[in-house]
Design brief:
Layout (H helix, E strand, L loop, with lengths): L13 H15 L19 E7 L4 E3 L7 E2 L4 H12 L2 H4 L2 H7 L2 H10 L3 H9 L14 E2 L1 H11 L6 H8 L23 E6 L6 E7 L2 E7 L3 H11 L22 H4 L1 E3 H8 L8 H4 L5 E3 L1 H5 L5
Antiparallel strand pairs: 1-2, 1-7, 3-4, 5-6, 6-7, 8-9
Length: about 300
């Protein structure tokens, strides 16, 4: 997992420029961060299914990860996507909070208006282990399908309210249940959708992070769910590759170092490798930075 220290870019100086260059490379390394989260399915009890889907890479899953289990509130992701893509604007505006607070009432109202939503999303994304069964609360799915859906939509502008709702999940859901367990507790996770049965007999979580999606579904308590997930994580995952940062020549007067770039230009340069906007926490649009930083940082073609 990569941690960032945000700096005050209102007082940009040469020392900060060097720090920002290092932070920029760390930001651009986010795509490899999934390699720092590795699981061993052999350590997951049968009561739990689990899938780690690495963006552009392998999928690591338990043997039962294709089993269709109660989707619980994870089905709101499927419902929400359809409403965002096809629903009336006033209904689409409700989706983010439906995800953030896991609002059952909102889900039921939206499905009553758009009964075709989940079946059409199942067909659109080829979710072969997912079945609507007539009602969002009766929907079954698999962790393979959930992570495949998250990977297919994570860069889709239509789906961004889903991911924003996951990223800002409320500590307590609309029904009073705490949203603080499962895959949300893993290193590198940026956002999570939580699910639980009314009688608390089963729990599910689905999360995304830089370069990965992960989901788990447990026939058991929230503590068992969390225990099974944490038990599968390999403590000593491969480290991120080292990236050499070209030094900033603080005394140079050449055009390469004397020309300046704005923070907005730097952020545009790295936008395609930072889909979750980490750059916005590091750089202000009006910051004055060395133009050489544009050449030092790999970015969008």
């Amino acid at each position: 997992m990569i941690f960032f220290q945000c700096c005050n870019v209102l007082h940009v100086n040469k020392i900060f420029s060097r720090s920002l260059a290092l932070s920029g490379v760390a930001l651009l390394s986010l795509g490899a961060a999934a390699q720092a989260l590795t699981i061993d399915p052999a350590f997951v009890p049968e009561r739990t299914q689990m899938t780690l889907n690495i963006t552009g890479g392998p999928t690591i899953a338990t043997a039962n990860a294709a089993e269709s289990r109660p989707a619980l509130s994870l089905s709101k992701l499927y419902l929400g996507y359809w409403v965002l893509a096809h629903g009336a604007p006033e209904d689409a505006a409700k989706v983010e909070n439906m995800i953030r607070y896991s609002e059952d009432g909102t889900a039921s109202a939206l499905e009553a208006r758009y009964p075709q939503a989940i079946p059409e999303v199942i067909a659109q994304f080829g979710l072969s282990n997912t079945h609507h069964n007539g009602f969002w609360g009766n929907t079954t799915t698999s962790t393979n399908d959930v992570t495949a859906f998250l990977e297919a939509t994570r860069h889709d502008p239509v789906a961004q309210p889903l991911f924003e709702g996951m990223r800002t999940a409320a500590p307590v859901a609309a029904d009073g249940y705490a949203q603080d367990y499962g895959t949300a507790l893993l290193p590198g996770v940026l956002g999570t959708k939580f699910g639980w049965a009314d009688d608390r007999s089963s729990h599910a979580t689905a999360s995304f992070g830089p370069g990965f999606s992960i989901a788990a579904n447990t026939y058991g308590s929230r503590d068992q769910h969390t225990e099974d997930i944490k038990g599968a994580v390999i403590p000593e995952a491969p480290a991120l590759p080292e990236v050499t940062v070209p030094p900033v020549n603080e005394t140079s007067t050449t055009a390469e170092t004397s020309e300046m770039a704005t923070g907005a230009e730097i952020k545009d340069h790295v936008a395609c490798v930072d889909p979750f906007g980490v750059r916005d926490a590091l750089i202000s649009d009006d910051a004055a930075l060395p133009g050489g930083l544009l050449r030092a940082l790999p970015g969008c073609a």
